[in-house]
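Module 6 notes. Inverse folding takes a fixed backbone as the condition and produces residue identities as the prediction. Think of it as a translation problem where the source language is geometry and the target language is the twenty amino acids. Below is one complete input and output pair. Work through it position by position during the lab.
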């Protein structure tokens, strides 16, 4: 895992967009974003058990796995959104970027590789993209039913109770 402020320079979302200014794991934690290195599935299982996550699936985001809809999917993952539940992702192979909004609403890019797990709190605005390798295989963990309805950023979602609760935890 490596995190840094996004450079906001025009260009493909899959480019690194590294401003050169690093963001620490402590800073991420202050936003409620938790990083875990899980070298084994046993380590993933332990976190899942601790947090009451009973279900999981795997997704492969690549042109080979998705065919013609790949580009469209990659664009849709990159629309800024939040969820009413935590989002937990564990990278099984390849690499991808999760961007999360910092306290002043600036983007922080989190570069995740194999064995990296990220836990995003409910209510944080974020987005995802593959990198220039166009390949990531990830495990999605969920508590009960798969429920990761993305609520796209907008006036209505800005006042969602989960958004409000989240903001209270960071200020
Ligand atoms: C998400 O939440 O955007 C995804 O599940 C994308 C694939 S998981 C790396
Ligand atoms: Ni999401």
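Target side of the pair, the amino acids:
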């Amino acid at each position: 895992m490596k995190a840094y402020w996004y450079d906001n320079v025009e260009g493909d979302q899959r480019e690194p967009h590294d401003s050169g200014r690093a963001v620490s794991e402590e800073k991420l934690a202050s936003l409620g974003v938790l990083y875990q290195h899980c070298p084994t599935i046993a380590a993933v299982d332990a976190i899942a058990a601790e947090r009451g996550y009973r279900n999981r699936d795997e997704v492969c985001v690549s042109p080979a796995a998705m065919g013609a809809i790949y580009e469209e999917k990659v664009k849709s993952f990159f629309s800024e959104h939040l969820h009413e539940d935590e989002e937990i992702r564990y990278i099984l192979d390849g690499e991808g970027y999760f961007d999360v909004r910092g306290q002043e609403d600036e983007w922080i890019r989190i570069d995740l590789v194999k064995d990296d797990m990220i836990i995003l709190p409910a209510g944080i605005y974020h987005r995802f993209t593959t990198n220039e390798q166009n390949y990531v295989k990830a495990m999605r963990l969920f508590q009960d039913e798969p429920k990761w309805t993305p609520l796209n950023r907008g006036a209505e979602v800005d006042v969602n109770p989960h958004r409000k609760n989240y903001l209270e935890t960071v200020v």
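Reference fact for the lab report: Helices lie at 25-30, 41-50, 63-66, 70-77, 155-158, 161-170.
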